[in-house]
Specification:
The protein contains seven helices and 14 strands. It is α+β, with helices and mostly antiparallel strands.
Length: 431
C-alpha cells in the first residue's frame, strides 16, 4: 500500500518535475545519476527553506541595527535638550536670585526710611506738646496779669507807660508761640504724608518680593522635576545591571574627592526671612542631586556598557546553563575578521592564547569590572595597554573550543561572571 501511494505521487510529480539524469563520463565508462521527481522536490524545498531563513535572519538583524541606532540618536537628542533646558533654568534661577537680593535691599532701605520718618514724627509731636505746655503757662500768666490789672486799676492808671510795655511783650510772645505751633502742625502733616508714602512703597516692594519668591518656587520645582527625571534612568540602569548603586557612588566619590579654596560660613538673613532660607535649602538639595547625577555619569563612563560588535551579527548562545555546563558569557556570530571593540575604558591584563578561549583579550575596568573577548582571529592590543571605549582591540575568529566564527563576550564583577546582556540593555536607558 505505501509503495502504491509513492508510485502514484511520483506519477503526479512527473508532470511538473520530469525525471532527470545526470551523466558522469570518464575515459573508460559512462555513469548516470537518476533524479526522480520526489528527489527534485526535496532538493527544491530545502533550497527554498534555506533561502527564506537567510532572508528572514538578514531582515531581523537589519531591523535590530536600525532600531538600536535610532534609539541611541533619540536618547542623545533628548539628553542634549535636557542639558540645554537645565542650563536655561539655572541661568533664570540666578537672575531671579539677583532680583530677589535687589528687592530685599530696597525693602530694607524703605524700612529704614519709615523708621527715620517715624522718629521725626515723634520728635515733632514732642515739640508740639512742649509748645502747647508753654502756651498754657503764658495764658495762665496772662490771666494772672489781667486779674492783677483789674484789681489795681488805679495803680495801672498811674503807671500807664510801664503797663503798655508789658502788654506789648505778652502780645509778641503770643505771636511767636502761635507761629511755632503753626510750623509744628505743618511739619507734623508733612511727616505723616512722608510716612504714608514710605509705607506704600514698602508694601509695593513686599508684593514684588512675594512675586519673586513665587517665581523662585516655580523654578525650583522645574529644576527638581528635571533632576528627578535625569536621575531615574541612571538608577534603573545600575539596578538592571545588578550593581549596588550606593556602593558604586561611594567608590566613585572616593576616587574624585578633591577639595580646596577658602571655606566661609553660609550667610543667613538677620530679618528672619524664612522664604529665602527655604530657597537656600532647596538649592542645596538640587546641588546634591546634581552631584549624584554627575557621579552616576562618571560611573557610567567607567563601566562596560557599549556593544563589542557593531557590524551585523546574530546571537547564537546566551548566558547560563548550556549542554549541562555553565556558559559564562554570550556568543555573537559573524564573519571572520569582523571588528571587535572595547566596551569600556580600562587596562588590558591579558592578550594571547588561553585554553578554551583560543585567542582572548581580558580588560580590567574600574569598580571591580572585567570583560573578556574570546575566539578571536587577530589581537590588536597587548597586556598593560590602556584602551578607551570604542577602541578596536581585535577581529572575530574561530579559535579555541569553537564550532564556527563568533565572539564569546563575558562581563565579570569582582571575578564572578554576570549576564552581559544586562549591561547592554541597561545602557539603552541612558545612551
Amino acid at each position: 500500500m505505501p509503495l502504491r501511494i509513492a508510485y502514484r505521487l511520483n506519477a503526479v510529480l512527473e508532470g511538473w518535475l520530469p525525471e532527470q539524469r545526470l551523466f558522469l563520463k570518464s575515459e573508460r565508462s559512462t555513469r548516470f545519476v537518476r533524479l526522480r521527481p520526489g528527489t527534485q522536490l526535496v532538493a527544491l524545498g530545502g533550497t527554498a527553506l534555506v533561502f527564506g531563513w537567510a532572508i528572514l535572519a538578514t531582515a531581523v538583524l537589519a531591523i535590530d541595527a536600525i532600531s538600536a541606532g535610532s534609539a541611541r540618536d533619540q536618547m542623545a537628542r533628548a539628553n542634549g535638550a535636557f542639558e540645554e533646558r537645565l542650563d536655561a533654568l539655572a541661568a533664570e534661577r540666578d537672575t531671579r536670585a539677583s532680583e530677589a537680593a535687589a528687592a530685599q535691599a530696597r525693602f530694607a532701605t524703605a524700612l529704614e526710611q519709615v523708621s527715620r520718618m517715624q522718629n521725626e514724627l515723634l520728635a515733632s509731636e514732642e515739640r508740639r506738646r512742649e509748645l502747647e505746655t508753654g502756651l498754657e503757662v503764658v495764658q495762665a500768666s496772662l490771666q494772672d496779669a489781667l486779674a492783677a490789672r483789674a484789681s489795681d486799676a488805679v495803680a495801672l492808671a498811674a503807671d500807664q507807660p510801664a503797663q503798655a510795655d508789658r502788654s506789648e511783650e505778652i502780645s509778641v510772645a503770643l505771636d511767636i508761640l502761635s507761629g511755632e505751633l503753626d510750623g509744628a502742625a505743618e511739619g507734623r502733616a508733612l511727616a505723616e504724608a512722608d510716612a504714608a508714602e514710605a509705607r506704600r512703597q514698602a508694601q509695593q516692594i513686599a508684593v514684588e518680593r512675594d512675586a519673586i519668591v513665587a517665581r523662585h518656587d516655580e523654578i525650583f520645582a522645574q529644576l527638581e522635576a528635571a533632576v528627578e527625571v535625569s536621575v531615574e534612568p541612571l538608577q534603573k540602569m545600575f539596578e538592571s545591571a545588578g550593581v549596588d548603586a550606593d556602593r558604586l557612588l561611594r567608590t566613585v566619590r572616593s576616587g574624585y574627592s578633591g577639595q580646596g579654596g577658602p571655606l566661609e560660613p553660609m550667610s543667613y538673613s538677620s530679618r528672619g526671612n524664612a522664604a529665602i532660607s527655604q530657597g537656600e535649602a532647596r538649592a542645596n538639595d538640587i546641588l546634591i542631586s546634581l552631584d549624584q547625577i554627575n557621579t552616576y555619569r562618571i560611573a557610567a563612563d567607567k563601566m562596560p556598557l557599549a556593544m563589542p560588535v557593531q557590524a551585523a551579527f546574530r546571537y547564537t548562545s546566551g548566558f547560563g546553563a548550556r549542554w549541562g555546563r555553565q556558559h559564562a558569557g554570550i556568543d555573537m556570530a559573524g564573519p571572520v575578521g569582523t571588528p571587535i571593540y572595547a566596551t569600556g575604558e580600562g587596562t588590558v591584563t591579558f592578550a594571547g592564547w588561553q585554553r578554551g578561549y583560543g585567542n582572548v583579550i581580558k580588560i580590567q575596568h574600574e569598580l571591580g569590572l572585567e570583560t573578556r573577548y574570546g575566539h578571536l582571529n587577530k589581537i590588536h592590543v597587548r597586556a598593560g595597554q590602556q584602551v578607551s571605549r570604542g577602541a578596536r582591540i581585535g577581529d572575530m575568529g574561530n579559535t579555541g573550543r569553537s564550532t564556527g566564527p563568533h565572539l564569546h563576550y563575558e562581563v565579570r564583577v569582582k571575578g564572578t561572571a554576570v549576564d552581559p546582556l544586562s549591561f547592554i540593555k541597561a545602557a539603552q536607558n541612558v545612551f
